[in-house]
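yo

u said u wanted the structure for the complex thing, so here. seqs first:
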Amino acid sequence: MARAVSFNRKTVNTALAWAIGLLIFFPILWTILTSFKTEGQAIADPPIFLMFDWTLENYAIVQERSDYLKFLTNSVIIAGGSTLLGILVAVPAAWSMAFVPSKRTKDILLWMLSTKMLPAVGVLYPIYLIFIELGLLDTKIGLVVVLMLINLPIIVWMLYTYFKEIPSEILEAARMDGASLRSEILYVLTPMAIPGIASTILLNFILAWNEAFWTLNLTAAQAAPLTAFIASYSSPEGLFYAKLSAASTMAIAPILVLGWFSQKQLVRGLTFGAVK
Amino acid sequence: MGRIVLEKVTKKFEHVEVIPPLDLTIEEGEFTVFVGPSGCGKSTLLRLIAGLEDVTSGSICIDGRETTSLPPAQRGLAMVFQSYALYPHMTVRKNIAFPLKMAKMDQAEIDRRVTTAADVLNLTDYLDRRPGQLSGGQRQRVAIGRAIVREPSAFLFDEPLSNLDAALRVGMRLEISELHKRLKTTMIYVTHDQVEAMTMADKIVVLQAGFIEQVGSPLELYRAPCNRFVAGFIGSPKMNFIEGDEAAKQGAHAIGVRPEHIKVSATEGAWKGVISVSEHLGSDTFFHVHDTGLAETITVRVDGEVSFDHGDTVYLTPRDDMIHRFDANGLRI
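structre next:
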């Protein structure tokens, strides 16, 4: 009897999980399907799900009109650069918070995280002015720095959580063995934290890749990443859903593939420390 | 090499003084054991010597060199941790070689020393394994190997055997003692286990609440404990303490008699009591005697062949020359 109950519960849970999963995935699926429709079919009422004339013409038009590769390159440079720079700053920061904590360490961590609760638009004006002053507007380096700063609290938090799991005796042993601070971080801490660092890099790469507010507001033609590529299909000449969907699909495809292949690392990264 | 002198060393965490002013000299080549109950400050004292904690005041000299403010690596000491603290991502070979690599020694010399250490510690077959693939005892040996390759002026051991099972612990205890005989290097060993302290030490430092209660050889502490704390801590089973009239007869506030210094008889003796529990170890038997009117329980250690049973009435007689007398402050008279 007990087995039957647990079987039923398992079936219900599985069905529920699939339902929620499909619900969340549906907008992405709809975008991908729409990208293969003609503009007419894209706005048909009632909507057509699968029975339409599949076409690649939207992709051809999008590719013809704008240089996808340039946007893609910018996205890779901005997301990759900001993540790497963030890791370089965050590893020593998280090290000191995890292994040489002060009375205020917890407060500092919370304060850092609280900056993520601030509406980004609240600091747009000052940052915009600073960018103009420093000549950073529409430059990749400017975006790398801004996105690094935006995601830094999350990177530090994640690394801090990973580092806390490493027994401090091992670092003390390294100190006794004559390791300098640099050697201690390079040869002992980092190799031990590689799974954690990998998850952190992955998650932050995705966050930076998807970031739209700053990338749209601080770029024009030169440094624009894929978010700007999508946005360019949304407004000026009325809405062209099929082309917009094709552009969106092209923009999210790389990150979707990356996410798919690294889902194990991602799940570990997001749930790390939750259970022992 | 390896004389360590602590002068008026103190340590405070926030406002709590865990080590009150403390003076201690550890002679060259000596095997010194810091022993005491949990939280007595023995590990903190070791970490102060290692440089893993900063002293609040006072000075630490190693081989006549002032090292109080030097970082751990520059003190010429090697430490073996309770959790072994091996580098899990490195092979045994790399673990042992790590301190030499940090010292920028040339590769040929590193290889030579690692091979020698592995040979001494029976680790040759395991050099290419990772710590995760080793047993507890083997891991402990790797930790010791990592310490000996540096040829330090002193070894510091922080409860190195407490994670091992009982049988392995006895084996490793012997190995460490043999290592000391062979290397003749100063060793400081922290433990809460008085058996380890008694069997390994040249000199035992008994600590309580950061204070040194007594320093001496194992037999000095056993024969002439300077106060009730040391008397009760050293020796197993614990010394029996008796207060009241019986103590007053001896001109003391309390007297102490070790279980092995009490004779048991079925017919005559100084104190009468009833055996409540008898523990047979084979070689020895421990009797816990109640209803003596002297103390709640008096423990007696007799030869394994002596046969009394639960509920038997017995007579106990302490050996006159083995009675320890203490005053009201617990100090030896």
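Residues 4-231 of chain B form a domain with the Rossmann fold fold (CATH 3.40.50.300). DSSP finds nine helices and 18 strands in chain B.
cya
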